[in-house]
Amino acid sequence: MPASPTQRTMQFFHKLEWEIWPAEYWCKFSNKRRDLGGFIDLVLLHEQRKLHVGLQVTTYSNVAARVKKIKTQRRRQARKWIYTGGAVQVWGWKEYPDRADDGPFKGCRWRPRIVEITGKDLM
User: Fold this and answer.
1) Cα Rg, the chain, nearest whole Å
2) Kindly report the CA angle at 88 between 83 and 90, in degrees rounded to 5?
């Protein structure tokens, strides 16, 4: 069984030795999985860069839907995350027929499309 987008993202950042924490949880009352703030699956921390990123991870084909959801339904929460110093990114994973020649995913068939959501996107 192939790795989930969450597992792929966690593996990538573990190799870089960045701190990454799962942020989604199981709500026993609704019997559903919930994201932190309604849009964050993983929290990424880098101490030296003083950086924290809220990641929404998905498949490549669902990137546009996730971006739209954050910009509309989760706009208020995303603005607060960004205005308190965080960044928001959507990572959508796709398997390509060839391996990457260079960059951070060199040699990988599975690579993400990464969309950064900024404060301007949420005005």
Assistant:
1) 15
2) 160
